Amino acid sequence: MFNAVVVEDEKPILDLMKILISKNEYLNVIGEFTSSKEALSNISKLKPQVVFLDVEMPGMNGIELAREITKYNENIEVIFVTAYEKYAVEAFKVSAINYILKPITEDEINFTVARLLKKNVKAANKKKEKKYKVYCLGNLKLYEGSKNLEIKWPTAKTEELFSFLIYHKGEIINKWNLCETLWSSKDPNSAEHNLHNTIYRLKSTLKKFGINHVIQYEAKGYKINLNDFYCDAFEYENFVDNIVKINDENIEKYEKMITLYKGNLYGDKDYIWGLDWQEKLRNSFSDLIKTAYPYYMEQKNYNKAEEQLKRLLQINPFDEEAHELLQKVYYYMGDRLKLVNHYEQLRNILKRELNIDIKESTKKLHKECILSLEKRGKIL
User: What phi, psi does 288 have (nearest 5°)?
Assistant: First the structure.
């Protein structure tokens, strides 16, 4: 709900504006004035979030009033309502969120509220930005804002313990579960001793960077308090778990998630306890690329399709479906040289790393692509 003040020097129009504005469930009219000076003197008392201003008014006009209001509080949103288009440039110089031409309508009010809500969500998200950022996709990294803290973990187990706590997303982990997972070869007393020492090292390491009181003991277990932490793996997983059909509106988000995936969970660490999650995230990365592929092909954006498929093959060079899709991209690009070179690279990597031949469907596709290009005279 936005608290609003309305300023209009003609009383009948003011009354009509109040009626229309009050019909919107997100607006609450807390003040109405026919005088700019009277409105200005009451702004500090009423503390509105939104003001609807007529432009042409005697004495102080709406543009001047808006400047004074924003001097008092730049966060108050200004909407101009006028019969004249000529003031639009001046209006937007004071960062008006909308410029409505009279007669005012419910549709214009609704459109304005939609803008207010969108801007409010962005502001709220900005306020909620986490102080620390943990990047798990690829090598483990910890940032404060945009600054890489470049943490030097005192022991491999200290890093693994931190990674394990992140993996459990702030849940309490029973201390004996921690002992069994991280020191399975030790007897209970030795494992517990190692756990206490590693917890101490982890707390001390984080404290050096001003990160205090996040490793917490509770209900005979330990957890990490993630209130001040952003984690790339959490954002990525949330997106792939709620994936929607790709379109012009969400392609940017798809590409952001594809870029976010820098590699396997925790890089080359391959912690046994994290293999299931690692595999889930890696498979979903493949799905994202393959979901985006038809969209790029429909848009004839072959370069982007090539770029994304090559990223996938860097992560999993043995994905023959991805190799086949890349063959199709080169066919539609009409690039015989890339088509042939890529096919030979695939043949070599499969022979060298797995000692197997290219599967028949890939051979058939390659042959058809080459023959079709030759028939169409598209040899490059």
Answer: -60, -50
For residue 86, give the nearest of 66, 101, 103 by alpha carbon.
101
- How confident is the prediction along the chain (380 residues), in pLDDT tens digits per residue? 799 999 999 999 999 999 999 998 889 999 999 999 999 999 988 989 999 999 888 989 888 999 888 888 888 999 998 887 777 777 667 778 888 888 888 989 999 998 888 887 665 455 456 789 999 999 999 998 878 888 999 999 999 999 999 999 999 999 999 999 999 999 999 999 999 999 999 999 999 998 999 999 999 999 999 999 999 999 999 888 877 778 887 888 899 999 999 999 999 998 999 999 999 999 999 999 999 999 999 999 999 999 999 999 999 999 999 999 999 999 999 999 999 999 999 999 999 999 999 999 999 999 999 999 988 774 44
The domain covering 232-378 belongs, at the CATH homologous superfamily level, to Tetratricopeptide repeat domain (1.25.40.10)
Among 5, 60, 63, 55, which residue's Cα sits nearest to residue 33?
A: 5
Preceding omega of 103 cis (within 30 degrees of 0): yes
What stretches of 265-319 show up as alpha helix (H) in DSSP?
A: 275-298, 302-315
User: Is 2-127 a CATH 3.20.20.70 domain?
Assistant: no
* Domain extent listing, the chain: 2-127, 132-230, 232-378
| Cross-sheet strand order for the sheet of 77-82 | 27-33, 2-7, 50-54, 77-82, 98-101
Count CB-CB contacts under 10 A for residue 34.
17
Measured CA distances, 272 to 134, 180, 260 (Å): 20, 12, 23
Q: How far is CA 205 from the centre of its chain?
A: 29
Strands 2-7 and 27-33: parallel
d(Cα 239, Cα 333) in Å, to the nearest integer?
31
Closest CA to 141 of 259, 227, 238, 265: 265
CATH number of 132-230: 1.10.10.10
